[in-house]
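Query structure, 369 tokens:
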């Protein structure tokens, strides 16, 4: 079991910020939609990139006008907001104002984690977030209607999303869990499972990685019909059609019964898509299908097991995506509450591996009691 080096949760019990700083933080929240869209415009219009390329010399507004084709007015209102957010720096050199990249701006422009989160928020969450209040009141993802009115959860809609939105969703989904795969694979396949069920297998990334890692394993992906169709295509293209099969169905449906006897069950960033009551319901189905020696692996980013406050914050924010866009009833969980929900289905925690990958995933391993 890896040592847990999560940040100190006690900081959430303190309120040490100075009043003047708290007021500034409050203004950031009050104007958050406008500041977010200002950064988006700076990025998409190429202004941020031009400032970054100017390096230590900086760049004037006039130079930016010539380089980007954006009006002086547009550059000024956007860059002044960015200066106020410390995204950009404004200095007077030889009587001329010059813009420079700030540290925060660099992360927005270059950091993969930030870019994935930003695009996901813009393309998937931004418009629907207006309906967060109604989502909480009604217990369903009221913001999802921005993508059409025939879906009850975003998972049903994934295969039909516009290409930009679909890319942002899958980039977000894969960026987090995929980083933990190299550390998780040796743990799972040290037990030499011959048949592994990948519940919520999505586009078959874990299944394909498994087949590349272990030449003997056979993987059955269990997911919604739209997702299993994509998984089958990807498995064929990867050359593993003979070792990766699918089982289509809604895991929550009363009529859905899992096949019997897997050696291992894998759920990567899957259970956060369900309420705690639904987690227990799903695991009861896994319990019915599992053998006494079946290992059940749950890979999740738990917000109280992160090394840094920024990662915990990102997960807390992701919970709101679930509320207004995804399903209206799930969130990013803490270690204790997820563990308890799984154990209520008749499992006991065998071991826990924390801090897998740069995004601090936790791999929880269960067996039948």
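Result returned for the query:
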């Amino acid at each position: 079991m890896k040592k847990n080096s999560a940040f100190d949760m006690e900081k959430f019990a303190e309120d040490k910020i100075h009043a003047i700083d708290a007021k500034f933080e409050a203004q950031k929240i009050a104007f958050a939609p406008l500041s977010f869209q200002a950064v988006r415009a700076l990025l998409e219009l190429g202004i941020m990139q031009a400032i970054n390329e100017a390096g230590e010399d900086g760049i004037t507004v006039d130079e930016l006008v010539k380089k980007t084709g954006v009006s002086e007015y547009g550059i000024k209102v956007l860059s002044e907001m960015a200066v106020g957010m410390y995204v950009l720096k404004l200095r007077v050199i030889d009587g001329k104002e010059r813009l420079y990249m700030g540290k925060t701006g660099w992360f927005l422009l270059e950091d993969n984690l930030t870019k994935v989160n930003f695009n996901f928020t813009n393309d998937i969450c931004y418009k629907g977030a207006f309906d967060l209040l109604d989502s909480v009141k009604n217990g369903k993802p009221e913001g999802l209607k921005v993508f059409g009115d025939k879906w009850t959860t975003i998972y049903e809609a994934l295969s039909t999303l516009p290409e930009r939105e679909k890319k942002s969703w899958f980039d977000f989904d894969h960026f987090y869990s995929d980083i933990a795969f190299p550390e998780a694979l040796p743990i799972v396949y040290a037990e030499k499972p011959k048949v592994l069920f990948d519940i919520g297998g999505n586009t078959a990334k874990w299944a394909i990685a498994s087949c590349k890692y272990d030449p003997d394993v056979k993987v059955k992906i269990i997911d919604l019909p739209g997702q299993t169709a994509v998984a089958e295509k990807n498995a064929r293209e990867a050359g593993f059609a003979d070792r990766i099969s699918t089982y289509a169905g809604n895991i929550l449906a009363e009529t859905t019964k899992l096949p019997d006897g897997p050696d291992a069950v894998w759920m990567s960033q899957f259970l956060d898509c369900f309420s705690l009551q639904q987690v227990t319901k799903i695991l009861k189905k896994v319990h019915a299908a599992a053998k006494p020696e079946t290992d059940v692996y749950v890979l999740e980013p738990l917000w109280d097991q992160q090394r840094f406050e920024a990662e915990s914050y990102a997960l807390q924010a992701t919970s709101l995506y679930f509320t207004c866009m995804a399903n209206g009833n799930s969130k990013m969980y803490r270690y204790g509450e997820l563990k308890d929900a799984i154990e209520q289905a008749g499992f006991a925690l065998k071991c826990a591996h924390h801090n897998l990958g740069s995004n601090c995933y936790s791999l929880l391993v269960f067996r039948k009691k």
